[in-house]
Amino acid sequence: MTRNGKIARLPLDLREQLNQRLRQGQKARQLIQWLNGLPEVQAVLGSEFKGQPILEVNLSRWKNGGYQSWLEEQNSLDAAIAMMEKSSGLRELNKEELSQRVNLILHNQIALELKRLDFVPPGSRKTRVQRALVDRYVALQRVSLEKARLGLEERRLSFLHERSLAKACRPGRKPPKSAEP
Q1: Gap between the Cα atoms of 9 and 3, Å rounded
Q2: Distance between CA atoms of 157 and 132, rounded to whole angstroms?
Q3: What span, in angstroms and rounded, lies between the C-alpha atoms of 84 and 1?
Q4: Which of 8, 80, 88, 81 is nearest to 41 (CA)?
Q5: Which of 40, 44, 50, 126 is most exposed, with minimal Cβ within 10 Å?
Q6: pTM of this prediction?
Q7: What is the CA radius of gyration of the chain?
Q8: Which range is least confidently modeled, 53-67, 72-86, 126-140?
Q9: pLDDT digits over 62-119, tens only?
Q10: How far apart are CA 74 and CA 53, in angstroms?
């Protein structure tokens, strides 16, 4: 769902700061004064809302909509991290399992950030953030593919080694000469 209110049109980093302040229990008046005093907010309000300031009703709507969505995402992320921290202890994980879990967390974070972009109005800033997220995703995919390629290469070399040993040990063949004198 794309939101189009005054607060939804603010830059993503400001909405993030606002959500953190709401989560900490800051009062509406303080938040409204803070927001209306920021140059970035003034620019958005001037260009898209004829300079009309953010009011309590705008904050109230945000608290019931965008903020609630953000809280759900944060709670989901917190639960996923807590589950991974508690599950069998990181010390007991082998490198493969740890790598898979970190990969899952990073993919989850990218997905959450992409979801947050639904609330960013179209424009060059949104495009830059989308490109950055795509770049992060592509980098993760490259690492996964390279890891898979290395695993296949390791299996291929192991197979070739086993095959050469089997040939060398056939009846009637001399064992390979040792490199040592």
Answers
A1: 8
A2: 37
A3: 30
A4: 8
A5: 50
A6: 0.49
A7: 27
A8: 72-86
A9: 999 999 988 888 887 777 777 666 655 555 555 666 677 777 777 777 777 777 777 7
A10: 28
